[in-house]
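Work package 3, deliverable 3.1, input record:
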Amino acid sequence: MNAKTSRILALLLALMLVVAFVPGCAAEEEPAEEPAAEEPVAEEPALKAAMVTDVGGLGDKSFNDLAYEGLKRAESELGVEIEVLESAEITDYETNIDSLANAGFSPIFAVGFLMTDTVVKMAPQYPDTLFGGVDEFFETPIPNVVGLNFKEEEGSYLAGVVAGMATVDKFDTRLNDKNVIGFVGGMDTPLIRKFEAGYAAGAKAVNPDVQVIALYTGSFTDQAKGKELGLSLIEQGADVIYAAAGACGTGTIQACQEKGALFIGVDADQYLTVPGSGDVMLTSMMKRVDNAVYMTIESVINDEFAGGTNQVFGLKEGGVELAPYHDFESKVPQAIKDAVQKATDDIVGGTITVPEAP
Amino acid sequence: MSEPREGTVVQRRWMTILQKAGTPVISALLAIAVGSIIIWASGYDPLAAFAALFKGSFGSPKAVGDTLLKSTPLILTGLAVAYGFRAGLFNIGAEGQLFMGGLAATAVGLALGATSWWISVPLMLLAAMLAGAAWAFIPALLKARIGAHEVITTMMFTYIGRYFVSYLVNGPMKEPGNIPQTPALDPSAQLPRIATLFSEGAREALPILNLGRAHMGIFVALIAAVVIWLILKYTTLGFENRAVGFNRWASETAGISVQWTTVKALCISGVLAGLAGATEVMGVHHRLFDQFSSGFGFTGIAVALLAKNHPLGVIPAALLFGALSAGATTMQFEAKVPQDIIQIIQALVIFFVAAEEIVLWFVRRRQKEAISHAG
């Protein structure tokens, strides 16, 4: 066989391999296309609102997806035209904001604190465009920018109330007598510390003797690590575990399922976003990024956009809340539900101030 | 008599260059062709997609600037991996060396504060090079002395480096406030954007100078590519590097210290990856934080593979990857094609380059068998 034939053969082989592999690829692409393919509703859109995801992208089951939920709700309920651009790299933030601003989108939501610098840089270049920074705090006010922040500690306090009372209760066979509850954090940052602080404070308020063990994975993606820490917490006697660790939490759920403990989810209602987790999912601490986005769009429509401020969404503002108990609805004693309601009232009424650091 | 012979030599040189460049170019074209099929099969218009892709990567001076911006770290990490490969070493941990380079540049830049750029910039680049080399030195030593495989050790060092940076930006180096990042670098410690070097008048007269976000780091990368090419082609250091890559036993017999060459190769690889960290920090982010690299160390492996480990070939290979990445955002916005498709195309490029190697390997083996049968 001469060199030329073998080259042609090589090409043919390569092509065959590819043809064999295309259908799989195309099939995998299907779900990804949906958000982009969505066409805006007809009837004269009043407003063009858009968002730029951070590098986590859509499908993160966390703040990117939640912000998109808010955008979609604004589309269906307020008749707003929407667009979402994903960022693969940090250097895409600027290009994406540029494209959207030039195409006349306003407000533009920049999702995630990593985008703070970009918003600070870009907003003055587009003074007529409004910006909403999810999880972004702006030291120096910019007239066309609003920072959207959340009181994660308040929602976590409620999660702590549930965990602190559940661990000394007997409504489920997986609850033991050791009076220990666990917390799995992602990266050890001030933001995640807020979750831990609120959780511990809530648990101690209803159960002063409870022991709260907090462990950090150092990652938001490492599921194996999340599982490992979950197993270790259960080993140390924890029977309720709250995870604020992004995708690591999925690993912690597995640990709970294997070793028999209950789990409290974070950000979204994880009963709905993590299929098959219902048997351990006691509740979730929801960060209502969707509400914040929706309300901001509403404020633009009503000419009440709070530019130049940092808005804080707590329990009172509907920025954080506990998800339904779902499968545990009938099991959870009324006393716990009442305690959660009381804590909610006290926080909203200002009688309780939840600490931000442990 | 010299006239016609010289012509043939030049011709032959061009032929070898064409031959060498052939596979990567064909691979890239095939990848784009198959990518089109995938785009079409997913229900989008491939022509619109590639038109938008081109517009976003080369369609305007600003787009060219974006392509250069994204190619800069890839040239350096591509060089880092390629230089290791030429000595038969797989430096899979360029990412970790890049992190340490970024860290060293930031630390030096913050320590110097506001000063003249001709003091801070060279010192920061130097610090990054040393840090990258230092981070590669331990795996290199382990490889040379006890034969610990560099794929394992450099990868492990990547984790250590990343978590070390994560600790520092969350702790000792964190700026006040809730965001885990260092304070911003003084303008004198930044690599300026190319466009800012020209006066407004010059930029109006010559719009091509409006290169958007492209920064001086691209020149650092290009100079590095030429220097590595010269080292490999003309110096003893480079000769030993290549010799060990071809055949370590023969090199040993010929009196080359394989151990010492291994150490030097990985350290130089680390120098290049460290520089990539420095240019990202100094030219793009102007501060250090956890996720300042989008896996450039790993994409560098793909770049080196596409460049067939040729230091000058790394430049077009990195430009291709940079252009794909820069165009992806426009493609997403204008053609509504999810940018994940770009990752598929990038993977296809690698796939075709690798596929050719695999097929050729089989062909060569059959040829050898045929020869032995004939004998």
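The two ends of chain A are 73 Å apart (CA to CA).
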